[in-house]
């Protein structure tokens, strides 16, 4: 470490341990999101429609080009990876090309890598003689970050190689995919997972890990923090367990950076400028995030039973402006104060 601080490089002896003797380092635990990634399509929670189509293609029907879209952590990547494993078994590596946003996916990659993979001819049996589909599968994760030119090149490759290759495009925002591609794919919208299904899955994972999560309050908190995103919930639980040694509702709030509900409500009920100033000062001193407060506030305002429609409109309008300014680098104190003034006026003039 000392040498690293001096030279910025890790020396060979440090890599092997300072005495040159092999160190017996414990492997870090696998992330739960990977360890519990569905192995088969039947392990996919919710998303009945797409599971049905994938099940049919496993039992022999042709697989269309697919476009999976929807919010993060709802099973899009897991579904196609599980289906690929079931379709191709131990030759999955040869039959599947998976590219995500961290790979270069400009027009050249589509022309070279995707096209040459698509043009490989393959047989319809596996090494053990068992039948398998005679096509290959190209998975393009985060397809909405591809340029329009790359998408246009992809469209031509899809057309030309459709006999030998199926494409599965995965994205969060379907509106960023060009129409000639969307019209060539069967589109499936992945919905945020139902609350009870998230709880059930989280409980299964915690039981397999031998982690106690008590009667339900903790898992309720995990669901509250994840908004239908199972990846986020699993990551939060594992972080909490590793950092704090146990999983508690307060621990989850801590590791996810959420603002406690009582602070959101306190901000929403400020009645005068002095209260507001004190709140903002303490809030920022305690190192909470202003953007996080605004995000949670938005949900609270929309679902509030005691604000009038007029109050909701006024607060929401200013909330949108302040969120945008924060994204543009506006000072947190200014934005929280500005929005707080609108809240004061709305609270005093219902
Ligand atoms: N429907 C689901 N059924 C079972 N597990 C799920 C489901 N959705 C998410 N998960 C869990 O969350 C992890 C992340 O899921 P996955 O990568 O499939 O999400 P995604 O929808 O592709 O997200 P992104 O849009 O961010 O790529 C998985 O490893 C799995 O543990």
From TrEMBL:
Signal peptide: none
Matches recorded under InterPro entries: AAA+_ATPase, ATPase_AAA_core, DNA_pol3_clamp-load_cplx_C, DNA_Rep/Repair_Clamp_Loader, P-loop_NTPase, Rep_factorC_C, RFC_lid
AAA+ ATPase domain span: 62-196
GO-annotated cellular components: DNA replication factor C complex; nucleus
Residue segments, region Disordered: 1-31
Subcellular localization: Nucleus
GO biological process: DNA repair; DNA-templated DNA replication
Keywords recorded for this protein, A-Z: ATP-binding, DNA replication, Nucleotide-binding, Nucleus
Molecular function GO labels: ATP binding; ATP hydrolysis activity; DNA binding; DNA clamp loader activity
UniProt main location, coarse: nucleus
Family statement drawn from the similarity comment of this UniProt entry: Belongs to the activator 1 small subunits family.
UniProt-recorded name of the protein: AAA+ ATPase domain-containing protein
UniProt organism field: Pieris macdunnoughi
């Amino acid at each position: 470490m000392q040498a690293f601080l001096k030279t910025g490089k890790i020396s060979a002896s440090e890599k092997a341990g300072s005495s040159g003797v092999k160190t017996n380092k414990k492997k870090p635990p696998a992330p739960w999101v990977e360890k519990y990634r569905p192995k088969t399509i039947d392990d996919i929670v919710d998303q009945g429609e797409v599971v049905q189509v994938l099940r049919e293609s496993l039992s022999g029907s042709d697989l269309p080009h697919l476009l999976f879209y929807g919010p993060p952590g709802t099973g899009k990547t897991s579904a196609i990876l599980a289906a690929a494993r079931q379709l191709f078994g131990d030759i999955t590596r040869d039959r599947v090309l998976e590219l995500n946003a961290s790979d270069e996916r400009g027009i050249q990659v589509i022309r070279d890598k995707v096209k040459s993979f698509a043009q490989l001819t393959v047989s319809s049996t596996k090494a053990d003689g068992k039948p398998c589909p005679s096509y290959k599968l190209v998975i393009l994760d985060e397809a909405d970050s591809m340029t329009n030119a790359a998408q246009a090149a992809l469209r031509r490759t899809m057309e030309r190689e459709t006999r030998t290759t199926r494409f599965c495009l995965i994205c969060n925002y379907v509106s960023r995919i060009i129409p000639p591609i969307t019209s060539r794919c069967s589109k499936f919208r992945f919905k945020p997972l139902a609350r009870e299904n998230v709880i059930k899955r989280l409980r299964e994972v915690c039981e397999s890990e031998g982690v106690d999560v008590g009667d339900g309050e903790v898992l309720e908190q995990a669901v509250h923090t994840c908004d239908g995103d199972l990846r986020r919930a699993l990551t939060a639980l594992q972080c909490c367990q590793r950092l704090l040694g146990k999983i508690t509702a307060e621990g989850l709030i801590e590791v996810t950076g959420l603002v406690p509900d009582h602070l959101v409500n306190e901000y929403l009920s400020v009645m005068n400028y002095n209260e507001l100033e004190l709140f903002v000062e303490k809030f920022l001193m305690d190192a909470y995030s202003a953007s996080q407060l605004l995000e949670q506030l938005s949900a609270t305002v929309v679902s509030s039973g005691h604000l009038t429609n007029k109050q909701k409109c006024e607060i929401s309008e200013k909330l949108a402006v302040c969120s945008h300014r924060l994204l543009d680098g506006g000072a947190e104190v200014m934005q929280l104060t500005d929005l707080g003034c609108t809240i004061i006026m709305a609270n005093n003039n219902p």
